[in-house]
């Protein structure tokens, strides 16, 4: 994420690695916009296209395992490294737009 010189997040680089839903939101929104526009262009109804894009993006996500990316802190003793995350632990996983496009026939 781009950072301000007044952000207090460190010195040097103009970008700072950050995580969380606030960082994922622009990427997921862009992926959905791409899928929806492709569906609409192929003649799919506007409401149906939104639902299809959302469902396919969720279902085609790559599952993340505990400890990935390497070095992720294990803040809970129940979180065993290598175990796939559940949806409430880490969302649905990493978005995979190419897999979504393939599943939608785009």
Descriptive report:
There is one protein chain. With 106 residues, the protein is mainly alpha-helical. 44% of the residues lie in helices and 0% in strands. The chain contains 4 helices and no strands. The longest helix has 21 residues, at 21-41. It is globular. The model has no long low-confidence stretch (mean pLDDT 77).
Structural class: mainly alpha
Indicate the overall shape. globular
The residue-averaged pLDDT reads: 77
Rg of Cα set: 17 Å
Distance between the termini: 30 Å
Strand content: under 5%
Compressed to H and E, one letter per element, the order equals HHHH
Helix content: 40-55%
Q: Would you count the extended β strands for me?
A: 0
Low-confidence stretches: none
Number of H/I helices: 4
**Major β-sheet profile:** none
Outline:
By secondary structure, this protein is an all-alpha fold.
List keywords for this structure.
mainly alpha, 106 residues
């Amino acid at each position: 994420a781009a950072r301000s010189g007044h952000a207090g997040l460190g010195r040097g680089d103009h970008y700072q690695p950050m995580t969380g839903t606030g960082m994922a939101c622009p990427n997921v929104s862009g992926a959905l916009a791409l899928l929806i526009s492709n569906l609409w262009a192929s003649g799919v109804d506007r409401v149906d296209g939104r639902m299809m894009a959302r469902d396919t993006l969720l279902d085609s996500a790559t599952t993340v395992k505990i400890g990935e990316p390497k070095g992720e802190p294990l803040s809970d003793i129940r979180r065993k490294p290598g175990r796939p995350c559940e949806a409430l632990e880490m969302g649905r996983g990493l978005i995979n737009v190419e897999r979504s496009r393939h599943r939608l026939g785009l």
